[in-house]
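Priority: medium. Attachment 1 of 2:
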């Protein structure tokens, strides 16, 4: 408790049971679990709570490597890279994939991490109406016809960015229609499956499996 006029907290002997509705503990792993808890303790004893270093400077452990191998196998890819948080994934990867002379066409309700990643890339950004393939096609057609600002040269790369499940709306992306349009106009698709991997599809592998689209 905090006494009036004092900035300091003081411990009391009173305890109350509370329900935490503000955590990111979606799967309950932060609570005591007969399977996870012993393994977490074992990992803490072996590796410590942190490597105290970025991965490039010596912060990669065998746990990182094992996890990335498991993720790659689960999604059926030759390799995977794991980031410390979802926000960082989008904000760090988009500037690597895109740059000046490129065009990012982003869903109007994409997560803020995508917005910031797109801004940091240096690419031109255009927005299409949320989950509306017809408007996406309109924007693509107009931008391809106009080309880059001032020079009107063809875009070096065009990438359409969508989410598998939109995090605030809980709405599933119209993925097959969007992919068909991107193929038609030779644009790349960047799919953020932060909320769909493990949640939808017969095998839990996201919207690609959900729609049986064959896209990967």
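Attachment 2 of 2:
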């Amino acid at each position: 408790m905090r006494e009036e006029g004092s900035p300091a907290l003081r411990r009391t002997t009173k305890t109350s049971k509370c329900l935490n509705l503000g955590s990111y503990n979606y799967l309950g792993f932060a609570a005591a679990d007969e399977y996870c808890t012993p393994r977490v303790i074992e990992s803490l004893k072996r590796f410590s709570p942190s490597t105290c270093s970025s991965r490039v400077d010596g912060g990669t452990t065998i746990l990182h490597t094992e996890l990335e191998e498991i993720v790659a196998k689960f999604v059926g890819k030759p390799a995977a890279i794991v980031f410390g948080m979802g926000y960082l994934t989008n904000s760090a990867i988009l500037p690597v994939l895109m740059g000046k002379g490129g065009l990012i066409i982003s869903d109007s309700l994409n997560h803020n991490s995508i917005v910031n990643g797109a801004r940091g890339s240096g690419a031109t950004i255009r927005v299409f109406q949320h989950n509306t393939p017809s408007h996406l096609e309109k924007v693509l057609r107009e931008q391809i016809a106009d080309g880059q600002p001032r020079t009107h040269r063809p875009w070096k790369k065009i990438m359409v960015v969508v989410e598998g499940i939109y995090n605030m709306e809980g709405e599933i992306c119209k993925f097959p229609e969007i992919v068909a349009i991107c193929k038609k106009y030779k644009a790349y698709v960047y799919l953020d499956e932060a909320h769909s991997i493990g949640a939808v599809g017969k095998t839990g592998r996201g919207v690609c499996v959900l729609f049986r689209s064959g896209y990967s």
